[in-house]
Amino acid sequence: MKDRLKLKAGIMSLLLLAAILGFWYLATARPDVAAVDSEYAKMMGKAASSGGSGLPSPLDVGRQLWADLRNPFYYNTNNDVGIGYHLGYSLMRVMLGYFLAVAIGIPLGFAIGMSPLFYRTLDPFIQVLKPISPLAWLPLALYTIKDASRSAIFVIFICSIWPMLLNTAFGVAGVRKEWLNVARTLEVSTFRRVRKVILPAALPAILTGMRISIGIAWLVIVAAEMIVGGVGIGYFVWNEWNNLSIANIITAILFVGVIGMLLDQILGVAARQVSYPE
């Protein structure tokens, strides 16, 4: 039954993709759309990426995608490098900020989940800081850190920590009381109780928080790099917009989507290996 459902879903996905590509092809083939886009390019004083013919067609994007895949790591000058370099730098920043959030957010979540006093002490600060847009921290980070790349890493850290911290606290606080009572009755040490009882029970919630955080982090890095510049996929997209290289922008968006999906799936596989205890 499941295999049949997967087959039907796969066929429907392919049909939907074909419909999207067909609509895209017809839309870009319309002369009025091309004329409007060409006029816009003239107003901007630049040529459109598809030779002044408007929004690139699926074939134009496919050719650009093949060119990017064929040579993703070329290096001509500091301002002319392959898209692989930009994606690599973005991934590096995301991983540094993300694992810094793991190192701080998960232990802090454990402390909040295990101690009602600690929870009540920190809750007002969490409620104030959590809704702040990560990009709102960027000017302050640039002013204090005085380094664009480290500022972007800080922004990733600040946007990644909240889902992990809150999901960890929720998972730890939700551990069954009878399990904890048995551990206390057996005079199990606090560290052993955390390792043997609390961590296995809270692990699904922790992994869910980590999965949410990696998606937010990958989303935010694109916006942050548009501001800080230098190198990174966000900078690449913004630079290609300045050049009106629309095909390059679309291929970059596709790369961002695929990598984001892979990051989510990696943590999704880990999360599916752990089931909530009954």
Topology:
Blueprint: H1 2-29, H2 31-44, H3 58-70, E1 75-77, E2 80-81, H4 83-114, H5 116-129, H6 138-145, H7 148-173, H8 177-185, H9 190-228, H10 233-242, H11 246-272
Antiparallel strand pairs: 1-2
Helix pairs in contact: 3-11, 4-5, 4-7, 4-9, 4-10, 6-7, 7-9, 9-10, 9-11, 10-11
Tell me briefly what this model is:
The chain is mostly helical and 278 residues long. The chain contains 11 helices and 2 strands; from the N terminus they run H-H-H-E-E-H-H-H-H-H-H-H-H.
Fold and architecture overview:
The chain is an all-alpha fold. The chain folds into two domains: 2-55; 80-272, MetI-like (MetI-like fold, Orthogonal Bundle), CATH 1.10.3720.10. It is 79% helix and 2% strand. It contains eleven helices and two strands, in the order H-H-H-E-E-H-H-H-H-H-H-H-H. It has helices spanning 2-29, 31-44, 58-70, 83-114, 116-129, 138-145, 148-173, 177-185, 190-228, 233-242, 246-272; strands at residues 75-77, 80-81. It has a two-stranded antiparallel sheet with strand order 1-2. A hairpin with a 2-residue loop joins strand 1 and strand 2 (80-81). The longest helix is centred in the C-terminal third of the chain and has 39 residues, at 190-228. Mean pLDDT is 83; it is low at 33-38 and 43-53.
CATH architecture of the largest domain: Orthogonal Bundle
Oligomer: single chain
Query: What would you call the structural class?
Result: mainly alpha
Name the average pLDDT.
83
Estimate the helix proportion, in percent: over 70%
Poorly predicted spans: 33-38, 43-53
| Strand tally | 2
* Beta-strand fraction estimate: under 5%
